[in-house]
Amino acid sequence: MKYISYRESTIDEKTRKIHNQQYIKKQLIQQKEYFDNMFKNIDETIYLDEEQRKIVLTDENNVMIIAGAGSGKTTTITAKINYLIEKQKIKDNEIMLISFTNKAVEELIQRINKDFKHNITIQTFHKFGYEMIKNNTTPAPKILSDNYNIIKEYIEKKLINNKKKLKKFIDFYTYYFDITEEVLILNNLEKYNKYKNKQKYATLKQKIEYIKTKEQESQNKNKTIKNEYTQTTEETLIANYLYINNIEYEYKKTYEYINDYKPDFTILYQNKIYYIEQFNINEKNKFKYINNIKKIRKIHKKHNTKLIEIYEENIIEQLSKKLQENKIITQKKSVTEIFNKLIIEKQDTTYKNFIHFCKTYISLFKSKGYTQKDFNKLNTKTKRKKIFIDFIKELYKYYQYKLYRTNQIDYDDMINKANKIIEKQEKPKLKYKYIIIDEYQDISNSRFKLIKNISEKINSKIIVVGDDWQCIYSFAASNINLFTQFKKNVDYCEILRITKTYRNSQQLIDIAGKFIQQNKNQIKKELKSNKMQKEPIKILTYKKNEKQRKTIEAIEYLIKKYGPQKNILILGRYTFDKNKIIDNKIIIEKEGTIIYKKQPQIKINYMTIHSSKGLGYDNVILINASDEKLGFPSKIKTDPILEDLMTNDRTIRYSEERRLFYVALTRTKNEIIIITPKSNASKFVTEIKKYKNKK
User: Rounded to the nearest 5°, which phi and psi values hold at 370?
Assistant: First the structure.
């Protein structure tokens, strides 16, 4: 008697399912001693529960394992591989286990190949893809570690020779490329936070009149002689337009008749003075500002001065029209002159961020499995998107050409080119009977396509393991729909669950589960735990400048209750959140570890929530639970241009931030203490209070 998979079945489906149920029931009895003792020589505390044993015995063509946080996912994968090799006599080289990071791969190698003395293939997607390319390409391509310089070279050496394309680039860069917050998050959010909050938005005029000093080089790349910074991006657009069109202006100059009134812009043209006021008004807020507008109009009418009003929509078009109406003639500077001063001479932070923006776009584009011809089907409904797509299309062509000429591939090519090789081969020379994918919730379109093509070509069985509640990498091209709709994407799938968590208490997972399942698109789960904790989530509120004191209070509480031998994880939404509690007096950081000087023996680590995924600590403190732009949930909006290439779950507001909050809640083995401001607590904290209070 053996398990009959869907593809090999010659009997009707109902009979097949009954047969497999009986087979598993019988094997649970026959293999009981084997399962009971599987981890005895490795870790006596590990014991396979019935759900895990059924997963090990299920031998379907496609198996999806939905695993809760802290439920023993790695243990289940290890047990499955042990059983295949030891009981089903599958050879080591017939099993491939893929995960997403080198760290995860190292941990799996330790557990499976070293602890259990197996020799299966365990690698990242990129390693697998590159090995396939090397084995099928002569000479083997080199890996391009960073594409920054190719993009820079295209802009500075290729683009400059085409005036028409150069003009479009300048238009996008000056009018439409407001500092791209999502890209800056990935590259250097700490510097960005200082720049944005303290310096606001630098105008093009400031950037071009920039003079370097040693202090500026080390601290702020965008400060100018006049120290002229606008208060809004809309004002920046106006300032840039005026500068490019040779119209002299002064920003926030005191009105000649009233000392405490400073119009946005003062223009002197042919001995006449004009004043520009920009109002951020739309249908929702027009009544709020109408009295202010009337007041400003009254001032200019009284003193017989010329007021030009600009509103929220189509700012440049409005400004151009109003200048013409007032017979103010624009004379554009040459695009080459602007380009040389703005880009070649300056090489400032905004320019570097633009290159990073292009890098991110190219990576997301490739992760979708797109090629040059796919630019034609992208969204170009707005002028901003159209200008950028026209630019990036040419950049991409140049970028791919440079890779080809130098025999290089980037990391996304490792997946896409490997897939092309598989598609061309009638029978790929791969021996894998089983392909197991760990952390499947992080899968991208291109990775899924590669694995599916391999499975179909060599008839290997696919086992995917993951948790859609912990899908937090859409900015890196993960597609949650490939997890939640896995069954639709394969011919047949058996869905199994690991619902018992060994990390969290029942009380914690009840609260965390209610929170995450407010999103109706998340797969429903009822997690169970034998651990009981009366109050696993505590909320400490603080007033202004009290965050560090409350954090110390939380640390002292945990030490007193659990003892100095228990470790503590401090979590932040961003890397720089730790700076709000580290003062180098009471709390210091040394070699990546947080030291509480009153009790330096306590093991305290700081991590971002993204970095903590997959880890468990005795106790956790979450320090950035505020309701603000750089709080939690983060209110930083992804650039719409990048968003078109990402999977957007709009079934509930802040869907991915909710999953990130769930990850934060479930890192603790005992308690999590959330530090939140009294005046503007995180919406997530307000929400879980309701679940905490329900008995």
Answer: -80, 155
For residues 379 and 89, the answer to whether their CB atoms sit within 8 Å is no
Question: Whole-structure pTM over 0.70, yes or no?
Answer: yes
Confidence of residue 347 (pLDDT cuts 50, 70, 90): low
CB-based contact 184:192 (threshold 8 Å) = yes
What distance in Å separates the CA atoms of residue 225 and residue 205, rounded to the nearest whole number?
11
Interatomic CA distance for residues 527 and 540, integer angstroms:
27
Compare 396 and 207 and report the one with higher pLDDT.
396
CB neighbours of 583 closer than 8 A, spacing ≥ 6? 548
How far apart, in whole angstroms, are the C-alpha atoms of residue 394 and residue 151? 11
What tokens appear for 595 in the block? 């030291």
C-beta of residue 264 within 8 angstroms of C-beta of residue 278: yes
Q: Is the backbone of residue 48 left (phi > 0), alpha (psi -120 to 50) or beta?
A: beta
369 phi and psi, to 5 degrees?
80, 15
Q: How far apart are the first and last CA of the chain?
A: 48
Give the span between the Cα atoms of 97 and 684, in whole angstroms.
36
Rounded Cα–Cα distance for residues 620 and 539 (Å): 12
CA–CA gap between residue 631 and residue 602 (Å, rounded):
28
Which pLDDT belongs to residue 144?
Answer: 94
Closest CA to 250 of 276, 232, 231: 276
The b-or-e profile of 541-560 (16+ CB within 10 A means b, else e) is ebeeeebbebbeebbebbbe
Average pLDDT for 155-174: 88
Res 693: pLDDT? 67
H-assigned helices in 87-147: 102-108, 125-136
pLDDT for the residue numbered 225? 23
Helix 349-367 vs helix 181-194: angle between axes, to the nearest 10 degrees? 150
Cα–Cα distance for residue pair 238/203, rounded to 1 Å? 9
Structure confidence by residue, pLDDT tens digits, 244-286: 888 999 999 999 999 999 999 999 999 999 999 998 876 556 6
The Cα 277–Cα 264 span in angstroms is 5
DSSP of 214-253: HHHHHH-TT--SS--EESSHHHHHHHHHHHHTT--EEESP
b/e sequence 520-539, b meaning 16+ C-beta within 10 Å: eebeebebebebebeebbeb
Respond yes or no on whether the N-terminal peptide bond of residue 564 is cis (omega within 30° of 0): no
Burial class (CB in 10 A: 0-12, 13-18, 19+), 501: buried
Q: Supply angle C-alpha 74, 461, 66, rounded to 5.
A: 40
